[in-house]
Amino acid sequence: NAGVMQNPRHLVRRRGQEARLRCSPMKGHSHVYWYRQLPEEGLKFMVYLQKENIIDESGMPKERFSAEFPKEGPSILRIQQVVRGDSAAYFCASSPSETGENTEAFFGQGTRLTVV
Amino acid sequence: GQNIDQPTEMTATEGAIVQINCTYQTSGFNGLFWYQQHAGEAPTFLSYNVLDGLEEKGRFSSFLSRSKGYSYLLLKELQMKDSASYLCAVFNQAGTALIFGKGTTLSVSS
Q1: Which of A21, A112, A8 is nearest to A75 (CA)?
Q2: Minimum CA–CA partner of A105 in chain B
Q3: Which one of B93, B100, B105 makes the best mutation probe of the A interface by having the most chain A beta carbons within 10 Å?
Q4: In chain A, which residues touch B (CB < 8 A)?
Q5: Ordered per-residue pLDDT tens for chain A, 116 residues
Q6: B69 vs A30, B2, B22, B26, B36, CA distance in Å?
Q7: Do A43 and B87 lie within an 8 Å CB cutoff?
């Protein structure tokens, strides 16, 4: 059973370009969470999705960032018109149901985005 | 809102015992998680406490006091491979996702 798969592992974009980060949850998991981690900072919650639904996007910046989790295929975190401040590690996590109820979230290896 | 405090750094020697503390303030408590994260890698689950008391799992134990808003992670018989960041997390106000502290970087030396 493969773990949470994120790709690419490393992504370099020029300012103004678009970045697309992909996350395939563990088999049987229908809940996906995206986090951002800046150097020397903790994991910052961005968005929580279930298949075809955004449940909680309270951590998403209001502009340029969007996320989706379609019925088929991976979850996508999309950053438009990237700026240097978007450089960070972006982690995806998945769980079979809502985290809690003694159900932990499993994390992917992350995508390290560098904006030049 | 939520607030989580952990020491930034700790050091210890091989074979020793170390306790990493975490204090939190949250509206509505649904459990506390500890994760381990090695540099450049994914966080991995260590423990989940929802009731007061000590949960032991091999060399690692986690304690929770809900009345004090306090938890600790106890690592025994430290090994070099335990050098990592240890993240404390509680649920956000909506109860939909984990909110993490900044993590405690533990350095184990020989």
Answers
A1: A21
A2: B45
A3: B100
A4: 4, 33, 35, 40-45, 48, 55-56, 58-59, 91, 98-100, 102, 104-110
A5: 579 999 999 999 999 999 999 999 999 888 999 999 987 788 999 999 998 899 999 999 999 999 999 999 999 999 999 999 999 999 999 988 765 555 688 999 999 999 99
A6: 31, 11, 8, 8, 21
A7: yes
